[in-house]
Amino acid sequence: MRFILLFSLLFIASLSFGQDYMTKKNAPGKAMKAYKKINNLYHNRDYDKALKECSKALKSYPKFVTIHKLHIKLYQDLDDKAGLVKAYEGLIAAAPDYSPAAYYSLGMIKNKMGKTEEAIPHLQKYLTFPNRKETYRKKAELVIKNGDFVLKAKANPVPFDPKRMGSNINTPYYKEYLPSLTADGTTMVYTVKERGQEDFYVSQKIGGFWQKGTSMGAPINTRENEGAQSISADGKLLVFTACNRRGDFGSCDLYYSTLKRGKWTKPKNIGEPINSKAWESQPALSPNGQSLYFSSSRAGGKGKADLYVSHRQPNGKWGEPINLGDKINTPEDEQTPFIHADGQTMYFTSKGHPGMGGHDIYYVRKMKNGEWGTPTNLGYPINTTSNEGSLIVSLDGVTAYYASDQHNPLKDIDLFEFELYEKARPTPATYVKAKVRDAKTKQPLKANVDFLDIKNNQSFLKSMTDAEGEFLVCLPQGNDYALNVNKEKYLFHSENFALGEANSIKEPFILEIFLQPIPEAATAPAPPKPVKPSSTPAPPPPKSKPIVLKNVFFETGSAALKPESRTELNRLKQLLTENLGMRIQINGHTDNVGSDASNQTLSDNRAKAVMDYLIQNGIASGRLRSQGFGETQPIDSNETEIGRRNNRRTEFVVF
């Protein structure tokens, strides 16, 4: 309805050319009598009779443009696009030079109806008239420019079978839109508009089914509107939009709230430099929580609303927002960004890139140099000549969610899900969800969490567990990752996630990590008296459980350390350096492939290789022992490759 009203205002404000038509000023008495009758029926909202009288009058007075205009108003009020097309075509046939705006309106309506090939000639005609308003000229030129894209897109539709989400999410008379999802896919937050009021609702997925959505309530929802939002991968941080609140920086600002002990904290303004005097909205947290993407109309952008990113600084504050540049942003609007858990694929809406018309959905990927590539339209019929809203994609890259009124007989906005076609999918990702506890007291610990990309030996993410000792981190397929969890006065814990090969993701990793306190004697300020190192004598009884060095790697069948092992070995060296009274034994183990003798020798040599590395890097030899156990102490079955890999391990114990 707002779409048609725009054309009505434009039409009324348009100039007239030529005089080969009839108006109220020069119409004969019978024609004016017919007009007044129709006008009275219109104001009494007797639209059926008014339309019948219009048809009769226009047969008798086909050039009476005032009745043509009333004919158009009738179809506008009825929200009848087909009738409106007929009415505009009648006006243009009767008086071709009466109103340039009639060509514009007719072209835009036909384009919205999906008849772009018919729309373009009308818009081209509109552009031939002088003194056209700049705003409408640009819009007409954009539809013409997109004409070839529209025709090609319709000729080559992408796979698309949207399914309306159930009645637990969608309601008959309210609007549901702007969804966001936690990494585990079990919590969805979305906006519900009820009688003009926008609030956030949340639904949990249990047993494969979305439960009844419920209001997030206070302090998140207020009597004011709460707009677009983004929930963090672990579901413990919510960033959202609110407008015209006390103490804000501009028209709309970004706010945040954290989940503590099952309750959301009172929202706070995220502050400068993210918020400004301009409009900031539609936030999207990166999967690691260290970057925040959003749309803003601030000065210095490429167009009306641009996409920006702010990165979290080492002190925890957000850095100066960075415009995503000319490849992403255009002179038109760019909005609703979503960053997939692969960290490389972004989905967003735009009016400025080649598209079907209105806001279309696009995807773009990061290149090897870290810059964004060229956006790709998601295609028809996902995109239509109407406006498409935000789109989010599940962790595995297969299921997409978005809001639309195109598949709903009531024409309300509802949430839909569909299988995203393969070319537009991001790299699959999984997540690591863990709880860190004290091995003795079983109490949760606030510990350091460090993920390393093993291939390039660069940090992937550094974080800390929360007050409950928990963390959740998304890991994209395509790389191998090392995890180190450490805390002062505790032995560290390491894990390895081999995701470098295709289809390596099966299930998420759910861990319970117990950190062992360092024995008090090991923290003595002076090192023990050096003794001659030995690889054969039996060690004293161990004082700790074995700590497996899951990121120490050897060449196949050899005791030669791979370069990727250095990070973990240096962590062990640091532990020994910080705890001068600590003495450790390094143990080597193999699987059961090969002879007992060869496995014993290999395990001896591998344990000694680790000990030698530490000695070469400054650790006193008297603090170290090594011993191989061959295949005699398996911790997993040797019947599977994973089991054998687990048995091939290097570990240390504190004694």
Structure, described:
It is a single chain. The chain is of the alpha+beta class. Helix content is 24%, strand content 27%. The chain folds into four domains: 154 residues, Alpha Horseshoe (Serine Threonine Protein Phosphatase 5, Tetratricopeptide repeat), CATH 1.25.40; 262 residues, Neuraminidase (6 Propeller), CATH 2.120.10; 90 residues, Immunoglobulin-like; 136 residues, 60s Ribosomal Protein L30, Chain: A. Helix 2 runs antiparallel to helix 3, helix 6 packs antiparallel against helix 7 and helix 7 packs antiparallel against helix 8. Strands 2, 3, 4, 5 and 6 form a five-stranded antiparallel sheet that branches. Strands 7, 8, 9, 10 and 11 form a five-stranded antiparallel sheet that branches.
